Amino acid sequence: RARALGRVANEWMDHNPLEASEWIASLENGKARDEAVEELVNHIYRSDPVSALAWAFSADSSSKRKSMLRNAVDHLKRSGKSDVALREIENSGLVEEDKQYLLNRLNDIK
Questions:
Q1: pLDDT band for position 109 (50/70/90)?
Q2: DSSP structural state of residue 48
Q3: CA angle 50, 51, 52 (to 5 degrees)
Q4: Smallest Cα–Cα separation from 33: which of 4, 53, 13?
Q5: From CA 11, how far away is CA 96, in angstroms rounded?
Q6: Residues 6+ apart with CB under 8 A from 68
Q7: Inter-residue contact 30 to 60 (CB < 8 Å)
Q8: pLDDT tens for residues 13-64?
Q9: How far is CA 75 from the centre of its chain?
Q10: Contact (Cβ atoms closer than 8 angstroms) between residue 1 and residue 32
Q11: Residue 104 CA: distances (Å) to CA of 24, 67, 96, 108, 109
């Protein structure tokens, strides 16, 4: 079911990203929603890394969340928006270890 929802999100993102994101927001937390969130983040992190970061924070799975956050932070840094990434990371509800990982990554990316 989770993979199927991820595929639906992927297809929907190609046709109507706003509707797709509204649908994803309505899903119950869990593996299926995380799959859909991952598809959304993968679609938008280059064009809208701030929104991608916000969506990535909402993932239940710590490994998926970490991967999505890493991609969004990397892109924010490369886009000259390190200050935005820093603010979002510091204000997030992430555990300290995850915050530190992202902050270190933010400082290491050239």
A1: low
A2: -
A3: 90
A4: 4
A5: 35
A6: 37, 38, 41, 45, 52, 55, 56, 59
A7: yes
A8: 888 888 989 999 999 999 999 999 998 998 888 888 888 888 999 999 988 9
A9: 11
A10: yes
A11: 30, 15, 12, 6, 9
Q: How far is CA 2 from the centre of its chain?
A: 17
Share of the chain above pLDDT 70, in %: 96
Place of tokens 């990554």: 105
3-state SS assignment for residue 79: coil
CA–chain centroid gap for 17, Å, is: 15
Over residues 52-62, the pLDDT tens digits come to 888 999 999 98
pTM attached to this predicted model: 0.80
